[in-house]
């Protein structure tokens, strides 16, 4: 089954503890971003493991990568992050009404 919604892809990619930790670390890093080695130092993860998880975040559109010389810098795609947050909060506190059960049934 293919997930086509950008929001569904974003949420699915964040549904893994390591990817969530990477994403939160990159949010803290801001526009400067981090390379895989720096992410590995913070999260105590092997570069090969991180590369796999970063690929999923990039594919979901939540992270962008930029080559700077020999290093690849990873940054949060803040537009995608805000789109996901907006989706989650767009109907916050608007109320929910339930259809009443038909008494005749």
Automatic annotation (TrEMBL):
The keyword DNA-binding applies. Residues 1-96 form the HTH arsR-type domain. CDD domains: HTH_ARSR (cd00090). InterPro entries: ArsR-like_HTH, HTH_ArsR_DNA-bd_dom, Metal_resp_trans_reg, WH-like_DNA-bd_sf, WH_DNA-bd_sf. GO terms for molecular function: DNA binding; DNA-binding transcription factor activity. The keyword Transcription regulation applies. Keywords: DNA-binding, Transcription, Transcription regulation. NCBIfam families: HTH_metalloreg (NF033788). This is Transcriptional regulator, ArsR family.
């Amino acid at each position: 089954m293919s997930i086509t919604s950008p929001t569904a892809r974003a949420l699915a990619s964040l549904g893994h503890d390591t990817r969530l930790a990477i994403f939160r670390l990159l949010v803290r890093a801001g526009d400067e971003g981090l390379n895989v080695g720096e992410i590995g130092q913070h999260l105590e993860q092997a570069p090969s493991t991180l590369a796999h998880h970063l690929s999923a975040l990039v594919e979901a559109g939540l992270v962008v990568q930029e080559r700077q010389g020999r290093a690849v810098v990873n940054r949060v795609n803040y537009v995608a992050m805000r789109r996901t947050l907006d989706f989650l909060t767009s109907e916050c506190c608007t109320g929910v009404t339930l259809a009443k059960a038909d008494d005749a049934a």
